[in-house]
């Protein structure tokens, strides 16, 4: 238990039993259940967090000081009971459902001993509609109707990921019914987490299992059902999982920061190797690449390695190297061509070392 002193002295002795009785009688309406806590959560961190966010949203109605007076945590089941000073403050706290605490969303519910009919006589049973939820990243309606047990929380997203890039990653498993990238209200920048729901709800656990824990840029993703812990996909879903993981591997390459810009851009996944064997097809490919690459700057050289006729491995086969006269051209080309589709293939465009390219080393 974590009692927090209110600083208010007790009244005369005869009043104490009445005060205690009142506290006990209203406790069911002054407590909220908070589920889905991280293993590192403790009474102090929960009390401090909820007192802070209650003040931030304007939910404190019982005067100055912390709204939270007591916290009890069940570490094994990862939930807490958070006791507020007043019934009205507990009702306001119900608006915090889904708030991010220590990197993951938590559930805020009424406790099982909550008595609605009795609570209605003690104070408001609904949150004040004028709460400033945007102050804590809970803009009303931001979830876009993404409610229910199949809502997925996607955390640990690099801040430079665009909505389109995140959607493309998630859609490796199928079309989305809803998607919401949470953004800072003032700057419009990503806050690094999102929510989504798939049209086909059966892929929910597959997506969570495949995406959770993978590294994206300088971050590690946390992906799970928003209202519960991780659930493993069923055996019959393994083939879908395997295919999706291959798609994710490709998306990770596309979404990686591409290093220090050079004058040379290397395209992979752009060609079918068999097309490089035929002379006419090869000439067409070179001309297509010259026209496409020339849109972004002055091309100095194009190298498209071909397979050896004797079947021996040849370095760089399947890649396209575009050398520009300056870095500005290569930067425009990399940004425009990375993730684009050519002939049904999704291209990965990266910068290539100029010294290796000059020496004819195409196997990097």
UniProtKB/TrEMBL annotation:
GO terms for molecular function: RNA binding. Residues 30-113, 150-228, 269-355 form the RRM domain. It is found in: Nucleus. Gene3D superfamilies: 3.30.70.330. Keywords: mRNA processing, mRNA splicing, Nucleus, Repeat, RNA-binding, Spliceosome. GO terms for cellular component: spliceosomal complex. Pfam families: RRM_1 (PF00076). Signal peptide: none annotated. GO terms for biological process: mRNA processing; RNA splicing. The keyword Zinc does not apply. Necessary for the splicing of pre-mRNA. PANTHER family: RNA-BINDING PROTEIN. Belongs to the splicing factor SR family. This is Splicing factor U2af large subunit. It comes from Gossypium hirsutum (Upland cotton). The lineage of its organism: Eukaryota, Viridiplantae, Streptophyta, Embryophyta, Tracheophyta.
